[in-house]
């Protein structure tokens, strides 16, 4: 659906999020284009669509422009979340940035705000950043949604030796309260665990659905698994609801590890279907960080025959 900037090793497009405007019928998609070092994740992009399938670029900002606007030295851009604040109507764009500061180089989450997805986008500041012992290297790649009027974030927390998922909540999407690391079924998580997808409202509480990554190959987080977890906010626990292997159904995905971590899914009420956007790894490329070639691929799940 969306091709990488080039087809050279280390060239990616993805790590994004789709926002459906149910009033206008528009679909807004954010991605980051990437090339191998030294360029890395060099911009964020906003695309628009009328059908959720064909997207056109409407605005972008390079990491150099972002550095100038924020006063930070941003080395790379990764996972992104695009939401609309229900109280103000403003759009929130959360960017994972490799930040040379605070207080040393590492990954933080930057918030940009705008009154229209086309921009102009203005920086609000670092909202989820490396402050606690379990997140000294990374506090980023968040999945953020609004559940029962409250922002809920499940984000990647890296202490430099262990990658786990941490939980944070907010009343406005700007000021966040960190609740700590998430357990899995009441136990400590594995040494490497990354979740990226959606947080939905469930009968018993928030439910995460998306990619579950437990493998790193040559610095690249790759997966072949989707999972659903009930999120217990009070106990900071993930209760497994279901887990299944992602079966590639296109010639654009590897058969062993088809996904580079990032998965998003939305309900399309205009055609009664689920749209799944996947950051897929080209079968002709390697799995290592700067060998992969990634594109955004769209899967459709029709619901009209329910």
**Sheet with most strands:** 5 strands, antiparallel
Class by alpha and beta content: mainly beta
Q: What's the CATH topology label?
A: Tachylectin-2, Chain A
CATH class: Mainly Beta
Distance between the termini: 27 Å
CATH superfamily: Glycosyl hydrolase domain, family 43
Determine the fraction of residues in helical runs and give it as a percent range: under 10%
- On the 0 to 100 scale, the average pLDDT is 97
User: How many structural domains can be distinguished in the coordinates?
Assistant: 1
Taken in chain order, the helices and strands follow as EEEEEHEEEEEEEEEEEEEEEEEE
- Please work out how many helical segments DSSP would assign: 1
Shape: globular
Which CATH architecture would you pick? 5 Propeller
Oligomer: single chain
The Rg value, from CA coordinates, equals 18 Å
Strand content: over 45%
Number of strands: 23
> Residue ranges: pLDDT <50 for 5 or more in a row?
none
Write out key terms for the chains shown.
306 residues; mainly beta; Tachylectin-2, Chain A; 3% helix; 57% strand; globular
How do you describe this structure in short?
The protein is 3% helix and 57% strand.
């Amino acid at each position: 659906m969306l091709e990488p900037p080039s087809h050279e090793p280390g060239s990616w497009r993805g790590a994004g999020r789709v926002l459906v405007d149910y009033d206008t019928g528009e679909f807004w998609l954010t991605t980051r284009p990437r090339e191998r070092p030294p360029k890395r994740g060099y911009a964020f992009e906003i695309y628009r669509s009328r059908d959720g399938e064909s997207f056109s670029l409407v605005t972008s900002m390079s990491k150099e422009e972002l550095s100038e606007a924020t006063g930070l030295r941003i080395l790379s851009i990764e996972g992104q979340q695009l939401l609309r604040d229900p109280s103000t109507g403003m759009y929130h764009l959360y960017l994972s940035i490799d930040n040379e500061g605070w207080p040393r180089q590492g990954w933080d989450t930057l918030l940009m705000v705008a009154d229209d997805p086309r921009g102009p986008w203005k920086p609000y500041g670092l909202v989820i950043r490396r402050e606690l012992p379990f997140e000294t290297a990374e506090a980023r790649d968040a999945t953020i949604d609004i559940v029962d009027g409250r922002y809920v974030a499940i984000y990647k927390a890296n202490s430099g030796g262990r990658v786990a998922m941490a939980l944070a909540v907010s009343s406005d999407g700007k000021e966040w309260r960190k609740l700590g690391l998430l357990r899995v079924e009441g136990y400590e998580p594995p040494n490497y665990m990354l979740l990226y997808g959606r947080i939905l409202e469930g009968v018993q509480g928030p439910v995460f659905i998306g990619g579950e990554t437990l493998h790193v190959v040559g610095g690249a987080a790759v997966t072949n698994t989707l999972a659903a977890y009930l999120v217990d906010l009070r106990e900071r626990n993930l209760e497994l609801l279901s887990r299944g292997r992602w079966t590639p159904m296109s010639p654009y995905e590897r058969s062993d590890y088809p996904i580079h971590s990032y998965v998003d899914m939305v309900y399309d009420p205009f055609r009664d279907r689920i749209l799944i956007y996947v950051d897929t790894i080209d079968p002709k490329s390697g799995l290592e960080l700067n060998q992969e070639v990634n594109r955004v691929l769209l899967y459709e799940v029709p619901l009209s025959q329910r």
